[in-house]
Each structure stands twice: as structure tokens, then as C-alpha cells.
Amino acid sequence: MSVLxxxxxxxxxxxxxxxxxVSYAKAIAKHLHQPLTALAIGNITxxxxxxxxxxxxxxxxxVNHHKLASFINQGYASVIAHTVREEGVEFMVLSNSFSGxxxxxxxxxxxxxxxxxxxxxxxxxxxxxxxxKTTAFSGKAFAYITLHSPVKVLAVNANTIExxxxxxxxxIVALEPAAIDMADFKAMIKELIQTTDKVxxxxxxxxxxxxxxxxxxxxxNIIEDLAEALGAAVACSKPVSDAGWRPHSEHxxxxxxTISPKLYFAVGISGAIQHLAGVSSSKVIVVINKxxxxxxxxxxxxxxVGDAFELVPKLTAAVKAYKN
Length: 324
Ligand code: FAD
Hints:
- By secondary structure, the protein is of the alpha/beta class.
- It has helices spanning 16-32, 46-53, 73-87, 98-111, 221-230, 238-242, 273-279, 308-323, and strands at 2-7, 9-10, 13-14, 36-41, 59-63, 89-95, 114-119, 124-126, 129-136, 141-147, 152-156, 171-175, 206-210, 233-236, 263-267, 284-289, 302-305.
- The strands form four sheets. A seven-stranded parallel beta sheet has the order 7-11-6-1-4-5-12, with helices on both faces. Strands 14-13-15-16-17 form a five-stranded parallel beta sheet.
- The structure holds flavin-adenine dinucleotide.
- Flavin-adenine dinucleotide (FAD) is lined by residues 211-213, 237-240, 253-256, 268-270, 272, 274-275, 278, 288-291, 294, 307-309.
């Protein structure tokens, strides 16, 4: 009953979600009294691999090949599937990130595996059967998925589990990829353009989001100031990005990014079902809206009825004062 976790990095630095999925997979491995193996693909330094090792993997397989320097869905899926077969893996864990969403169904198809994506809790394991809680219908419901297949693939949402160090003796093994099949490289990434150096929205623990209630892009400083004070990422509703007030990369919801931060501030957002679809698995939701009847209050953990232009600067000042 071997457990393998695939870890993602950006230009050689493991993402926050990489540490989270290692902790998630480690919990499964501990339950099964099995060692944990991690798989990293691309150009990563030994120091960075050793840092990852502090989180409980007893073996880190590192595949480095120039064709695999950037994420390429079919190429990565082939390497991971090959490793799953070679290592006799039964539980395969990865992050439910953009790349994870691309990889997980490919892996399930290649390995004839059962797949649970949008995973939001640790699984219950009973013999060779695993049951796990996931979100369903764009976050409107939870589903409990039971997997019976010999290989089980779990794509875990960001912020599902706190990563924690778990010192283990880690062997770092450089692995040659099995024969590279050119059929896996029909589409290649030519250039990666970083659009922001701020906290990445899908991974952020705190998100401050603005809607049409902000009246225009010139008022976004109140959202950005609060986000900066909290060390949060900035998001927005769809009409805001459609109007060009904010970039589409900040649009959350059914047709935008799905997020599950620990804390979500919705400022001047009505709470339409399509917006909630992308944010309802946030752990704590704070709503600021001047309309007490705004639908968002029905799902809020904390609701503040009032004018965002008065309240948000006061909140920012209070956060700054608390930090000092
Ligand atoms: P509004 O609905 O206009 O709400 C503005 C809110 O601001 C109001 O509640 C108002 O009371 C409040 N307000 C006004 N002034 C102030 C003030 N001074 N202080 C405090 N509060 C104030 N939407 C998404 O967000 N994401 C999606 O992915 C998405 N996908 C969609 C897909 C489809 C197929 C469709 C049909 C719609 C989709 N929508 C999506 C749009 C969605 O239905 C709503 O129209 C949208 O979420 C509303 O955005 P909003 O809350 O910013 O604006």
C-alpha cells in the first residue's frame, strides 16, 4: 500500500500547496504504517529538495530532463503514471491546482484509477476502500466519494490541511525519465510571463475581494490597502473584471478561479450564486455590504452592514494598529 505525492514548484521553489499535499499524503502513509514517496519534476536544487524532505517524505524522486523543464500536461502525466506503476503505488496525491486539475483525470485514465478531485478533508480508509469529502456542483454541496479501485488518485484543494514539519530521514533519488515519447510533447510552453509578484490567489490564506459596490477602479486602493495589511491576495467579482476595472486573473466564481482561503472578505459584492460557487469553501467569510438584504449575508460567518468606503479604511487602520 504505497503512497506517492506529486509536488509542484515555480522556477525551482516548491509552492505552499506542495508542502500541504506532502502533509496530507503523510497522514495517509502514517495511517497505513507506510513510508511516503514524493515525486518532483524539473530543475530543483538539492537544498530545496532537502527542505521538502523535512515534511515527512522518506524518499524524494527527482526527475530532471530539459523536455520537462516547464509543466507539460501529457509529458508530466506519463512520468507520474510510470512512477506509480514502478513504485506499486496505491494512493496517489496531488494538488487540485491548475496543473493538478489537468493531470488528475489524465492519470486516472492512464492508470484505470478511481479519482476524487476538489478534496477538502483527510480520507477515511477501511481496508482497500477509501472515502473522502469533496465539494460538488461548483461548491454548492459536499460529496463523499468512495474509491475501491487498486489505484486511487486524490486531488486536494489548497488550504485543506496545514503543512507541518515531520522530520524523517529522506533519500533524494535522481531518476531518469523512462523513454521520452515525443507524442507527449505536441504542445509546449514557449514563455511564462509573471503577471504579479503578489500572493498567488489560488494559494492565498486570506483574500480580500471587491465587487461592483466599489463603484470604479479608482477606489480599489481601499481593497489593496486592506489586503496589504493582512498579507492577503486581491480578488473581484465577474462584472468588475468584465468592466476592465481589474484583471481577469482576479475574477473568482463559477466562471473564474475557485478559491478556499482560510479567510475571505467580500466587499460590495451581492453574493450571486455564480460568485458563491467559487468562494463558498472558504473557511471563514466576512461580508461588508450596505444592503442588509444582500444574499451574501446568508452564507457569511461575520456580516457588517455599512458603507465600504467608511468601514474598510477603519478596518485597515485597526489591522495595522493591531500588528504594531
Ligand atoms: P452587484 O450584484 O451589482 O452587487 C453590488 C453589491 O454592492 C450590492 O449588494 C450592493 O448592495 C453593494 N454595495 C453598493 N454600494 C456599496 C457600498 N458603498 N458599500 C458596501 N456595499 C455596497 N459573478 C461572479 O462574481 N463570478 C463568476 O464566476 C460569475 N459567473 C457567472 C456565470 C454566469 C453564467 C452568469 C449568468 C453570471 C455569472 N456571474 C458571476 C455574475 C453574477 O450573477 C452576478 O451578476 C455578479 O456576481 C454580481 O457582481 P457584484 O456582486 O460585484 O455586483
